[in-house]
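Long-time lurker, first post. I've been practising inverse folding by hand and with some scripts of my own, and I keep getting stuck on stretches where the structure tokens seem ambiguous. Below is the full token string for one chain I'm working on. Before anyone asks, I'm not after the true native sequence, just a reasonable design that respects the backbone. If someone could post their per-position residues I'd love to compare against what I wrote down in my notebook.
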């Protein structure tokens, strides 16, 4: 191939840096239709509905968490009462007395056999 043949081949190739005017992406300026107003209204209504649903879900989540916290607080109070009872029993056992309810606890746990009458 000589130099002239190479120039013909180069000139026949399309220029890749050029773009067609009709091939642009994105919005076309100045093309607003009356149906866009309807679309905007529908979009706003969907947004409002979504916000209402989000607030309802948030309210339910907070109610669930408040119930969970209340249940845990009740459990903590019950455990503190049990701990206080065991401390009292330990103190009484240290003094050589058998505390009220201690016999029943031992029987329930199976440490002592229940007397058959």
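-- Answer (accepted) --
I ran through it position by position. Result:
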């Amino acid at each position: 191939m000589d130099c002239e043949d190479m120039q013909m081949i180069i000139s026949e190739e399309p220029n890749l840096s050029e773009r067609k005017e009709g091939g642009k992406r994105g919005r076309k300026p100045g093309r607003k239709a009356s149906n866009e107003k309807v679309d905007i209204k529908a979009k706003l209504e969907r947004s409002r509905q979504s916000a209402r649903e989000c607030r309802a879900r948030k309210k339910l989540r907070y109610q669930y968490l408040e119930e969970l916290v209340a249940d845990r607080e009740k459990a903590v109070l019950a455990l503190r009462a049990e701990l206080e009872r065991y401390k009292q029993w330990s103190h009484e056992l240290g003094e050589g007395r058998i505390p009220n309810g201690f016999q029943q606890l031992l029987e329930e746990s199976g440490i002592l056999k229940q007397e058959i009458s």
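A couple of notes from the structure itself: The mean pLDDT is 81. The first helix runs from residue 3 to 12. Happy to go over any region you disagree with.
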